[in-house]
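Example record used in the benchmark description.
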Amino acid sequence: MKIIDLSKNQVEVSQNLLSRKENDCVHLAPVTDRSIFAGAKVSRLDSGLGEMGEINRSIYENLAILRQRSRQLAMDDCHITKFLNMAVQETIGPKGLKLSSQGPDPEANKIIEELYAEWSLDCCTSGDMSLLDFEQLEVRTRHCDGEFFARIVEKFKDNKFKFALFPFDADRLELGFDCMPRPDGSYIRNSIEYDKWGRPAAYHILERHPGDNVARWPDGRFRMRIPANEIVHFFEPLRPGQGRGIPSTHAAIVNAKHLNAYVKATIVACRVISSKFAAITSKEADPFNTPQHGTPDPNKGEIINKVEPGRIFRLRPGESLDVFDPKQPSGQFGPFVTAILQGYASALGVTYASLSGDLTKTSFASGRLGALEVQDYWTLRRTNFINRSKLKIFKRWLTWAYLTQDRLYNVIGPNEVELYANSAVVYDKPVVWVDPEAMSKVVERNLGTGVTSLHKELAELNINYDDHIEELKKEAADLKGLNLGGKSKNEKKTKLDVIENSRDVG
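Model output (structure tokens):
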């Protein structure tokens, strides 16, 4: 082992190596001269590729335009509308995401689920939205606007749980409302206040929407400082340190513009084709006033004002008929639309078949592969939604349910509230089997070999295990009472006995 002698001379040398003098600094060549990566070279062919700086600065400069264009596409573009509907369907499901309490006391679990279902029918301050409506709005807004905001209102008087949700527009958090770092390290960026570690501490929200022309604004725009623990801010970050969300449709906006312009041009061309007309041209200025071999007879020939099927007519002397006959647009309309929609699908994270509904060139194998890929994509989006929004709201609700509902207060203690809050499970949207026959055989084999469990397979189908077992026991007891088994008890065990034995083993 070599022993380093930290003498004075060596320390000075090491310090010089770490901190060069200005005159000793080596100036590197520009990127265009020294880059070995083709993607980093700058030339006239790739000068349109922009340079991305600090993410929050880019959001300040571009988010407002992106959001307005995304909202416009959500109203006018049929494919973006379908994507938003698909996002709601795949994230929430047709019946919503079911929450199940998995605490140690079954009676307390049942009470929590019943109270949560009751609160879900009237969970917002407006009084006209259920939890399912709120979550659908949250998913749709998050993909269209890039982010979703809601305030958790505690001590709410018009609700027996004293707990409600207040969704509000992202425009009420003004872009560009910033504050330089304070002595404690906190700062404000794009209306969000952070501590020195970048954790949100508060949100500075305009009292009214900046575009509200109905309500009379007082002098100036007043902001409310709301603590961060009262705000649900759901977005999916793309880069570290990002504070505001970007619409999911941001990469499809250009393709949408091109497709819309091409469709309009094609429609105009088709309308021109269906509106053929003819023009009469004369070789002479006025054949009636210019004698030719005598005086022309005005009765010979006619002026054509309209054309009827099968009609034969004669032009006047010196006139000819020029017909404007445009042809059909080229046969590239279909391939062009397909190529654009394939770009749509790639930008939105879905398949071309699911976005366009075109299954003409989709085989079973390719459709199955695409469905499995999209299924994983939506499972990831759904898991993120559950962890960052649904469970966060449930934990805050459970505290107020314990304080306001005697049914729950009498069965659990104050130290157990956090235990039940952390033990809740949200059942995912049921997995749709692309090939049911093959998948059922796989599940049956995995259950027989112990690779999987009944808990996991029922959870994949959004079914509560305990409720399912109780339902099977009740069904088996009913069949046993009606003697519909076909065999006596001595010949074969009943379904009830099998279930009871399996539970005893578990």
